Amino acid sequence: MANNNTFIMKWLYKNWYKSTIFIAIYLIIILLLFLLKSDYALFLIWIQFAVYLLHQFEEYILPGGFVKFFNNKVLQSKKDKFPLDDRASFWINIPIIFIGFPLSAILAGYVDISLGIWTAYFSIINAISHVGMFFKHRYNPGFFVSLFLNIPVGVYTIYYFHAQNIISRNEQLIGLVIGVLIQAAVMVYGFKVLKPKVK
Fold it and tell me: Is 167 helix (H, G, I), strand (E, B) or coil?
């Protein structure tokens, strides 16, 4: 049983990102058909998940190579899959994007809409990091979706929620803090945990 579990996890580590484009397309179709007109605010929360899946598609599939880029360029490692590897990438992305984003959207629909706004803030903040890396390293996997989807869609969502008084300023602030803290945790892991391993 343990061997089977190990095999499954190793397979997931190497293949999880292949699902991103299919889930994104399916989700966008469903949202356009059933949520766009009935609950626009909730649509904007759910669309953050779809946009981020497209972001991951650019990072890992087309053109892909984010792990290699981050190791070689950012961490200055001579190895393509060290110190960031498939396993670490899986455990960074799955809890935040594949669990956190849809769970927050579900809670936004059934509990309170403010519970999903952090996804827009995180999407913007993470995208800004890709734009920042562009000025030092030029193109990096995830840059184009960051620039043309993550940032515009995230900013519009925050603006719409503010303009329509859908959530309070305090709820916006809480969303911002959550987004910053999650991005900070990712950066701390990258530069305080992974970076020292290179040396």
Answer: coil
Res. 28: pLDDT tops 90: yes
* Torsion angle of the four alpha carbons 81, 127, 76, 90, in this order, in degrees rounded to the nearest 10: -20
Burial bucket for residue 128 (CB in 10 Å: 0-12, 13-18, 19+): middle
Greatest extent of the chain over all pairs of C-alpha atoms, in Å: 54
pTM of the entire predicted model: 0.96
Nearest alpha carbon to residue 117 among 53, 184, 44, 37: 44
Query: Cα separations (Å) of 86 from 60, 63, 164?
Result: 11, 17, 42
Instruction: From residue 130, give the alpha-carbon distance in Å to each of 89, 97, 199.
Output: 16, 17, 24
Distance (Å, rounded) from C-alpha 7 to C-alpha 93? 20
| Residue in the block written with tokens 């911002």 | 176
For 65, list phi and psi in degrees, rounded to 5: 90, 20
